[in-house]
């Protein structure tokens, strides 16, 4: 993915073995695995969505993960935030997650953002990576992450889950036809509610986070058809998946032609 890739890059025997089951897929192969190795990814939020996202991307051999979360692990997190455990209570989520991820894959390179990211630091954090996953739980963070991704032309994999409903989409500012998060959600909804207020079931955030990780691998290794221009709606109660087409809003104040 990054410019560091050249013909001298190779996978060593241990890497070939560790990633053999996905290298077997013709859509990934050695080239896709090398792209993952040279990819840098920012994960915003290490909660219910960020847990499976970080674990699966680390396991898949994404070379560099940038972890952003200013929170500490609380006992009420453990019902769904499976990267943390009982011994992590009171630790920063970034530190707790880092230990687990390095135990899983010692070759992983990690960058920690333990403070809340303001506009400038968020812009710098987004510019430093190839892809961003929004695993946060609130509307204002989602809006800020989206604006930074649009400005830096960095693709964004967005997931959300609350109560018994989940949503997933991919916004790719490198494409003219892609909407941004604000095109779809900018007019407000019940998005201000968070899981701590409304409740959520663990496997649902696991499902949405796993789909986010899958979309990220597709974008980074360049295979398949990403969910750009499509919004997946998951109804956990009825076990139903529905897909909506979503379009770019030409008047969008973030990605539209009149945006500042
Ligand atoms: Zn937009």
UniProtKB/TrEMBL annotation:
GO terms for cellular component: cytosol. Residues 19-254 form the THIF-type NAD/FAD binding fold domain. One of its GO terms (molecular function) is ubiquitin-like modifier activating enzyme activity. It catalyses: [molybdopterin-synthase sulfur-carrier protein]-C-terminal Gly-Gly + ATP + H(+) = [molybdopterin-synthase sulfur-carrier protein]-C-terminal Gly-Gly-AMP + diphosphate. Pathway: Cofactor biosynthesis; molybdopterin biosynthesis. Keywords: ATP-binding, Nucleotide-binding, Nucleotidyltransferase, Transferase. It is an enzyme of class 2 (transferase). SUPFAM superfamilies: Activating enzymes of the ubiquitin-like proteins. Its EC number is 2.7.7.80. It comes from the Bacteria. It holds the Pfam family ThiF. PANTHER family: MOLYBDOPTERIN-SYNTHASE ADENYLYLTRANSFERASE, UBIQUITIN-ACTIVATING ENZYME E1. Homodimer. Forms a stable heterotetrameric complex of 2 MoeB and 2 MoaD during adenylation of MoaD. Catalyzes the adenylation by ATP of the carboxyl group of the C-terminal glycine of sulfur carrier protein MoaD. Belongs to the HesA/MoeB/ThiF family. This is Molybdopterin-synthase adenylyltransferase.
């Amino acid at each position: 993915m990054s410019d560091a890739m050249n013909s001298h890059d190779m996978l060593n025997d241990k890497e070939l073995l560790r990633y053999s089951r996905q290298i077997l897929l013709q859509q990934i192969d050695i080239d896709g695995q090398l792209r993952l190795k040279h990819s840098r990814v920012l994960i915003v939020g290490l909660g219910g969505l960020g847990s499976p996202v970080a674990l699966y991307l680390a396991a898949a051999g994404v070379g560099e993960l940038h972890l952003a979360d200013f929170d500490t692990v609380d006992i009420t997190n453990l019902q769904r935030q499976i990267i943390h455990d009982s011994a992590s209570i009171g630790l920063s989520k970034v530190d707790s997650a880092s230990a687990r991820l390095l135990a899983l894959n010692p070759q992983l390179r990690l960058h920690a953002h333990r403070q809340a990211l303001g506009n400038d630091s968020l812009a710098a954090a987004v510019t430093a990576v190839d892809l961003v996953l929004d695993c946060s739980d609130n509307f204002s963070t989602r809006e800020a992450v989206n604006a930074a991704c649009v400005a830096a032309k960095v693709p964004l994999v967005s997931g959300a889950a609350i109560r018994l409903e989940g949503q997933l989409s991919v916004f790719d500012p490198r494409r003219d036809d892609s909407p941004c998060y604000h095109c779809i959600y900018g007019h407000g909804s019940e998005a201000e509610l968070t899981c701590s207020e409304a409740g959520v079931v663990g496997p649902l955030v696991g499902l949405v986070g796993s789909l986010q990780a899958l979309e990220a691998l597709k974008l980074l290794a360049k295979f398949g058809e990403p969910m750009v221009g499509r919004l997946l709606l998951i109804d956990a109660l009825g076990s139903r998946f529905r897909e909506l087409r979503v379009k770019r809003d030409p008047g969008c104040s973030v990605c539209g032609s009149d945006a500042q």
